[in-house]
Specification:
A seven-stranded mixed sheet has the order 4-1-9-10-8-6-7. The protein has a two-stranded antiparallel sheet with strand order 2-3. It is 20% helix and 20% strand. The protein has one domain: 3-Layer(aba) Sandwich (Collagenase (Catalytic Domain)), CATH 3.40.390.10. It is built from six helices and eleven strands. It is of the alpha/beta class. Bound molecules: zinc ion (ZN). Zinc ion binds next to strand 1 and helix 5.
């Protein structure tokens, strides 16, 4: 019996973020611009239009084993038993958006054009490192998660606090820390000292890691979201700061779910927050599509 019968391919797809909420909100022209960077490329780019901040950070796929089919009882050493908590049908139903819009894009798509998302047939566990969370900010995360859960139908489970710190290449399977399952989504209130990608005006990053059997369909199995606690604390001191902080968290969570930036300034997935009105029609339609990702008893 082959030791590894699955050809697992791991790729992290991370949407990075530059938020210039204050610039647009308070009319400071120095802050009106857009910083973006590519995970794979490293350094922030200068003010620029457009999106394209997707990166493929990691690929630790096993060597191909032609002819081997997935779905047997064996499993690779770097993954938990397949199908944990996976039901036969989606656990929730996305709330239909009030209006149709195609103003959304996905961070990753499969060969058949379907977006890469999380399996809606299992809960998405998350943990929060709130050591640096600004006063009163913890509730904003949980409210944002409720909003994204309604939009996608994905059921989230709060596994509580963690002391895990964000790292650039987070292991999606950490049995010593989280047991024999995919690591939960990590939501970290952190700082540029710990997460260098948050340097400058970048206020958050977020993304997920997908697995596939070779070139087969991909599904996200875990993710991480980093929030620049000092910057968000400063925002919270301003009028309407909670709305901005919520918008930042929702934008990041939408990256985690699989949405890419769009050029449409009305959408929350526009790379700058102009008005903190939350998820707009394009965002909501995209999240609904992500909630239709296929179920994966084999992952
Ligand atoms: Zn972004």
């Amino acid at each position: 019996m082959a030791r590894f019968v699955r050809n697992l391919v791991l790729i992290a797809v991370i949407g990075c973020v530059a938020f210039l909420a204050a610039g647009l909100a308070y009319g400071d022209p120095r802050l009106v611009g857009l910083l973006e960077f590519r995970i794979g490329g490293g350094d922030p780019e200068g003010p620029a239009a457009g999106s394209g901040e997707t990166g493929q950070a990691e690929n630790t796929g096993k060597a191909a084993q032609p002819g081997v089919q997935p779905g047997t009882a064996d499993r690779a050493a770097d993954s938990p038993p397949p199908g944990l908590e996976e039901s036969d049908s989606p656990l929730g139903t996305p709330e239909p958006p009030a209006e149709r819009s195609d103003s959304y894009k996905f961070l990753a798509v499969n060969a058949d054009g379907t977006p890469v998302g999380y399996s809606p047939c299992r809960p998405l566990h998350y943990v929060v490192n709130a050591d640096l969370a600004p006063e009163g900010a913890a509730g904003l995360v949980h409210e944002a998660i409720k909003t994204v859960s309604r939009a996608t139908g994905i059921r989230f489970i709060n596994d509580g606090a963690t002391d895990e710190q964000p790292v650039e290449k987070r292991a999606p399977y950490q049995p010593a820390a989280y047991g024999d399952r995919w690591a939960p989504l990590l939501i970290a209130w952190t700082s540029p000292d710990v997460a260098p990608k948050l340097r400058g005006q970048i206020i958050g990053t977020g993304g997920s890691t997908h697995y596939s059997y070779g070139n087969g369909p991909k599904t996200f199995v875990t993710g991480s979201l980093e929030l620049d606690a000092p910057q968000i604390a400063a925002e919270l001191d301003r009028p309407d700061g909670a709305s901005y902080a919520t918008a930042v968290i929702l934008h990041e969570l939408s990256h985690v779910m699989g949405l890419e930036h769009v050029d449409d300034p009305v959408q929350l997935m526009y790379p700058e927050i102009g008005a903190p009105d939350g998820l707009a029609s394009g965002d909501l339609n995209g999240l609904q599509e992500l909630g239709k990702a296929q179920c994966r008893k084999d992952l």
